[in-house]
Amino acid sequence: MRLTVYSDFALRLMMYLCLNHDRLSTISEVAEAYDISKAHLMKITNELGQKGLVETVRGRQGGMRLGKSASAISVGEIVRACEPDFAIVPCFEAKGAVVCVIQPACVLKRALAAATAAFLETLDGYTLADLVRPTVPLRSLLGLDSSTSGLAAH
Amino acid sequence: MRLTVYSDFALRLMMYLCLNHDRLSTISEVAEAYDISKAHLMKITNELGQKGLVETVRGRQGGMRLGKSASAISVGEIVRACEPDFAIVPCFEAKGAVVCVIQPACVLKRALAAATAAFLETLDGYTLADLVRPTVPLRSLLGLDSSTSGLAAH
What we know:
2 copies of one chain form a homodimer. Chain A contains 7 helices and 2 strands. Chain A has helices spanning 5-19, 27-34, 38-50, 75-82, 108-124, 128-131, 135-141, and strands at residues 54-57, 63-66. The first copy, chain A, has a two-stranded antiparallel sheet with strand order 1-2.
């Protein structure tokens, strides 16, 4: 059972923006901090921007920040914004290309849908603010030392 | 978010064995009924056999049947038996090849582990017997008409 790389990267991006809340962050620095794909991060930033979870400031001094308070963003909200679907098994896919012969009478789908809902409801119980509680070690691991913060504060 | 093909096929195999409980089933007939890979089903049958969920009878008249009563097998048990891991994000992988810089102080892992547990607990609430309640339509969709049942009854 896996989340897509988009949710994984989105959660890490949002944590970074939260930990670096006193200034704007760039896609390049987030990609470098986590050693992950810049192209994927750009796609995710667009997606999160459309959902109001990330705010982008254009221009040479530009960058991004959280679209709303970290305590108002649930982990479930981030995952819902990024997972292309919750097709836990192929027959859940919207396009319906893959079919299963028992689909018309299948009860398993109901069980899997309930389990997926329980998964997301649990994530709704955590906010982005909860994820960054050990602020000092997390900032340190991401190279966000206090000495560099505030340089481009807004 | 997806389950692997192994869980998907295992759930369908177990439903077939349950619906065809009055005789032994072969891998070939299950593969044909669902139009799915025989090779994958063989691998899954071995796995489920080791976990006591499927019982195999050798020989020319051989085949397989449920290893215990359908009402004693939960959907969660089947999924736990078949998913290679519950690495919802890469850092959960046992081999630990993929690392994330914030791993030492990450709280997100706890949230995702709790969500995965909630997913499986929900599936524990359903038994295999629950999944085959609409017996007549399911048997019909799988080509298990009453006329063919009992031919190789044990």
